[in-house]
Amino acid sequence: MVLDFAQWSLDAIREEGGSLSWLEEYRFEWSKTTAFALEQILNGKTVILITDEKRKWLEQYIISSINSISLDRPLIPIISIDSVYPHYNSLSGGEMIDMLDDMISLSYKDDYFFWYIGKGDDKRSDIAKRKDESYFWIFDEDFNNAFTLKSYDPVLDIKLLQLYRLFDASLSATMFGEVDAGS
Fold first, then answer.
1. What are the pLDDT digits (tens) for 41-80?
2. Where are the alpha helices (DSSP H) in 16-125?
3. Residue 182 lies in a domain
4. Smallest Cα–Cα separation from 49: which of 23, 88, 16?
5. For a designed S-S bond to 113, which of 3, 133, 143, 152 qualifies (C-beta 3.0 to 4.6 A apart)?
6. Element (H, E) at 3
7. Minimal CA–CA distance to 134: which of 149, 117, 114?
8. Residue 4 and residue 34: Cα distance in Å, rounded?
9. Do the domain assignments include residue 169?
10. At 165, which CATH number?
């Protein structure tokens, strides 16, 4: 039997015990935004990962972990925005972001979406905020397709790792047909 994603997420959160209990109250926000991202991945879109500077460590972790050989699943097309355009931090103004977005659209034939992790007011979020399909783990701001966290949370880094672990398990479960991300 294939479970719907919201129920599967709740079960996965509860299986972790106390360490993920904080997420149970936000499971609907998590399920809605993450299911949309998973559907895009299953439809073959490339993930362009963007983080604010303070979360560069998480970007490196995700890029190096998501396609680990030990996972025994199909590879996910995921890249960092900095590998697409190494001068991303130097971009200023909407016109420059438009040019980069055009180059990405041409390169990936619009079969991509941005995954942004970081503060909502960081300029690195600007390109992701322009696309309706973007997926966000955003801090201190409500935004469409966003799972919101607080940047001043003293255990934010731990929560981010827990979220990634749940995301990775969700990805495997949807890829192997255990859960339907479309529900």
1. 999 999 999 999 999 999 999 999 999 988 889 999 999 9
2. 21-24, 27-42, 56-65, 81-84, 94-108
3. no
4. 88
5. 133
6. strand 3-4
7. 114
8. 13
9. yes
10. 3.40.50.11670
